[in-house]
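Hi L.,

You mentioned the student needs an example of a multi-chain input paired with its predicted structure. This one should do, with 838 residues in total across all chains.
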Amino acid sequence: MEEKFIGYECSVCGQEYSLNENIDYVCPKDGGNLNVLLDYKEIKNKYQISDIVSQTEISMWRYLPLLPVSDPGYEFTPFRNVGYTANYFPTNLSKKYGFKQLWVKDESKNPTASFKDRASALVLARAKEIKADVVVTASTGNAGAALAGMAASVGHKAVIFAPKTAPVAKVAQLLVFGAEVILVDGNYDQAFDLSLRAAEEFGWYCRNTGFNPFTAEGKKTAAFEIWESIIIGNKINDKPINIFVSVGDGNIISGIHKGFIDLYKLGWLDLMPRIFGVQAEGSAAISNAFIAGNEIINPVSASTIADSISVDLPRDGLRALRASTQTNGSYILVEDKEILSAIAELGVEGIFAEPAGATSFAGFKKAINLDLIQPDEPVVILNTGSGLKDINSAMKAVPEANIIDPTFDALISYINAKK
Amino acid sequence: MEEKFIGYECSVCGQEYSLNENIDYVCPKDGGNLNVLLDYKEIKNKYQISDIVSQTEISMWRYLPLLPVSDPGYEFTPFRNVGYTANYFPTNLSKKYGFKQLWVKDESKNPTASFKDRASALVLARAKEIKADVVVTASTGNAGAALAGMAASVGHKAVIFAPKTAPVAKVAQLLVFGAEVILVDGNYDQAFDLSLRAAEEFGWYCRNTGFNPFTAEGKKTAAFEIWESIIIGNKINDKPINIFVSVGDGNIISGIHKGFIDLYKLGWLDLMPRIFGVQAEGSAAISNAFIAGNEIINPVSASTIADSISVDLPRDGLRALRASTQTNGSYILVEDKEILSAIAELGVEGIFAEPAGATSFAGFKKAINLDLIQPDEPVVILNTGSGLKDINSAMKAVPEANIIDPTFDALISYINAKK
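Structure written out for the whole complex:
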């Protein structure tokens, strides 16, 4: 463990805990999710911006000086290949919407094709330090795939609890990665509870999103990449950038917020970005609190085509809300049909997003209409996962293909008819 | 066009053609696929190895000095993000098979999640130079997705012909990328013929694999990466490395061969690698010629779970055969069940391969049994595509998950039963 990591702070009551108190997960007093505390002074003494950006490591591990773990090793594995994802400049969308500084950060380039690899990798680095051999989580989606894939790549054992109603295809991916997959004849909450109980009884390390303070620490590396490649890389220092993030459990947006807080407190970032959370109308628990103007996150009965952000009770709702309220951002709601349109619009830039990945872009479009952002402002849109994860939704996003007879005459007729 | 690109040479009759002869595709005399000729002397005068490996570009475009196109631009697009894929060192497999120098090159990290992006990107760079606005291909698989995705990312128009029996899910990906998808009420050969006719009549540029000399030129960049990252990176100079490549049409293996030929002729590579082609038993056209000891590629009636290498008549068979015969390599056949096992074995290293992607690893295992390679020899195995492209096959590769009641007692019983 490095000296830079000094303890935790509860996101609900503000109580701080030192490392000596041996807390693994949430606040003992109120169950609030914990923020990891870093010794910024120590980090500043040891590192300068130039030390970070000059590294040859092309993964999230280039930001090791700002992470609460020591170098985990694992060179030449998928684990070591997470992050430092592509930042695309989508020419046509830039013209279409009149935004001259518009980027799409494509997290589908991660080893298991979603943003969640960042959290799983960091949790596994932590597991190595505390000598936990088994890491467990409840999930059937990207988080489970990410934990299974990352654990496999470093020889760690992963146990995934999922409701037996989980789609077989998603379960297959977990099994290919060699995870112990336990399907529970019950609902997701029962699988979740069983994962917590198993962690407690067997001494397994629990990765559950938000509940484990290190998930957000892994996810914050995306903020570091935006800072290095987009803010510094394009010398953006006259106005804050606007970041659009799809929100389900809320842990991605809170991780990104934490990353920028780290940079700001280090004095390495002049202007705090504005962070916009985008939720599906059918899964709007955090947005509801934003609109109500309070910090009370009530559960909903979620239903949206964007399965990765379909959440009844967000596991990191409070911090997710504050990511927007504390940065002059906003929460934005989009309909499923707007999400499908967004898939098609990103597709014609060569970017294939799953529904939850395209939700952020749908939110960007709505933010323009709501006058929340202006064309001269820089914008970063996060695609959180690959469209290959949900081909069925992709099929709903586009019209069917045309069928012709196998003759040149038929082709001519077809082309003329299209004119 | 740069001076380094000086013409073509027919792979069948050896006839050379200068650029003045304005040949776009195959040999006018016998229809043989054409090798691109480079002026190695000119390249050596202008560049040294250190110029190549010191570049900051982290994509296949770092090898521009060795490619037959000028810099196409297109910065910050998926097009510019192709290649420079991860080389993993699979610890467990290394121990299991006793090979201390074993790498898996993971092409699923490309923007459309397959090796084919390399060819499509280079063909589009060529299309830009010859001012062809529309690029056409016949394909429903990875090549089509790669052309559609790459074309979208640079604002080029792509037309894809496919038989109407093509899986809707694959067609959906083409449509999301905004390609003009024309389904033909006929078989694949009819779609192929129609694509050629359309290219000729409308002046569209035809990407068809092998038929277009630039597909292999794009694919050769994987050889450059193996050379730079594995051969130079690990100072391997006492024995040739052994490269395992899945083979369908044969254009990937012939592209990789071409890459090493370029390096060898430049004097930048001391030992030519041994190249092993791996085919499914149900799609063995090239392997049959290898076994027969001649260069006659007879069509087969192909049937294998590995759809990306299921090919009746390979479009680049001759050059694919020579990639092994001229490098002291071999062709190896594997059964579908061996391909499924290979998916599971790669999975537990955190690498998720489609069946065609895992076929190369199945071939590596067989090569050990056949005594074709020894444990002290360096090995590179190519995973050509993401397992997310074929979830159904993944499900066949692993046993089903267990189901338990949602109680802790049930979990205990399950764990005890497994002991």
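You could point out the following to them. Residues 133-203 of chain A form a domain with the Rossmann fold fold (CATH 3.40.50.1100). Chain A has a mean pLDDT of 95.

Best wishes,
N.
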